[in-house]
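Sharing a chain and its predicted structure for anyone who wants a worked example. Both blocks are below, sequence first, tokens second.
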Amino acid sequence: MNKGGLIVITGPSGVGKGTLLAGLCHRYPDLFRFSVSVTTRSPRPNEVDGREYYFWQRPEFEQACQEGFFLEWAEYAGNLYGTPRKAVEETIAAGKWVLLEIDLLGARQIAQSFPRALRIFIAPPSLEVLEQRLRQRSTEPEEAIQKRLSHAAIEMAAMDEFDYVIVNDDLEEAMEALETAIFGKEP
């Protein structure tokens, strides 16, 4: 594991990607780094440039796209988001593993721009369970939940595009499966 690499994590909203990745970083703090994306959206309260995101103006972002600055990029809700190629490559060269939590479109771009990346899909046991999880969060209106569930069905139809599919039914079992996917049999 000392050679470094890129690990792409994809899956529907509410499936537990962030929880699994936080657990992985807690268990192996010296091995993994999260990629910090660039965005054209405005910072939210308490967000710091370079910590949560790098906050750029749209013309600067568009110029960087033309110059091949990003491993992947996409537009979401009128804002641009992208993963800086150089930062990922430098982190890998330093022997660290870069964790990139991105959507299906971004994962497909990474498959083209960085084909040696390990691509892992985190799936719910079922759409019904995912719906329960989204509702238990009590953070979104009904319309947003329905939109997320519709998008989840599209994402789940693409699971076979990934190197590994991990069903997050039990958090500890999913963590063990994630470790096996990354490390092989033993970390």
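Comments welcome. The chain has one domain: 5-183.
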